[in-house]
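Re: How this chain folds, sequence and tokenised backbone to follow

Filed under: protein folding, tokenised backbone structure, sequence and structure records.

Contents: The amino acid chain and a row of whole-number tokens, matched residue for residue.

Body of memo: The sequence and its backbone structure tokens, given next.
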Amino acid sequence: MTKQEAMKAFLEIQAQLQHEGLLEANQGAVKAALRGDEGEIFFAELAGANMTMQEIATGEEQEPFFHAFYGKPEAKALLLLKGTYAAQIASSMRALTAELDDMAQIVGLTARVASTLEPVEIERCLRGRNSCFVKGEGMLITGRSITEAMTGAILLEKAAMTHLLAQKIGGAKRVPLFSAALMHVIYQKKYSKINLSAESTATKTAPQMQSDAPAQTVREREIRAEIVSYGRRLQEEGLLQGTWGNLAVRYDEKYMLCTPSGLDYRLLTPEDIVKVELATLEYGEQRKPTSEKRLHRDVFAARADVGAVIHTHAKRCGVFAAARQSICCIEGEMKRLVGDEMRCAGHALPSTKKLSRVALKALGNRNGCLLMNHGVICCGTDLEGAYLACKAAEDAAGRQLGL
């Protein structure tokens, strides 16, 4: 990484933090560090639209939080930032247990609170985890890439928000221990590597772009582009984070088109969308489809009126999923789009037959339901309808929380 590349990366981090509301004036400056190819560290302080950057050679006097690079030798990026809800957790708790499975996957089963930025304390709190809270500082995030660090910051702030807001509706419950441990291992060993590989490759070549791939109809190309467009829109609006969440469209009686597994929506192209056979869930020589392909297929099979399904990790809906409560204050246009309520399905591991069973039971004839400690699924006759249902559900959740 050159100094110019580091400057560009810091500007991208700054833009994303501003978009996520993590660079507000009352939150103080964000400290960011990137590890260079020769062991040097590029360090920046981000405050609103202002940024200062310096290059620090190995062995020079360092910021205390740089020690995370030694505790996490695979880390390429560090962020030290206050957040809003994260700062409250850091000042009032010793650790936050994962109450949503996206935190379990990218952070760990718990996020500890470090009392200081002393090396021993940082090592203790990051052991077996990718991030932690820091008393008086907010949160310290490590990532094997810039995208992973940014996603970690978004998800840890979201986890703190979920815990605090869920107190209004009875409190959040932890992700079942076995499920949390299993999902963390799978993410670290499997799914995250797909995104890391794509991010480090300047030019991606998807298998379906081979010259012997079947020709796509005009309609198929349009649907592929539409899935990419809605995926990015959902991410921009905070309903998807990183690689979490997925979209699927019923193509015809035999196939559906869906998002691939483990690829960030910022990197997604129409060629990455996967055509999956509904009866067998086979997909041939393409990218691997979303791990929730079974859930999408089973919704299509159970509901002839559904043409598109969106699974999100929307923040306000996530509060209800973590508290295992229904969203009830749905009225007017929201009631037309979603139904009379959004019930919370029982617990099931992602990608399993059980998840389909409990989700379909909670969904009924409505256009949305919650997935316990997980997220939400919304459906519609097309992607626009499913998208509007997602928006309506998030608005209803915010209204019931008094936001």
Notes: The two ends are 43 Å apart (CA to CA).
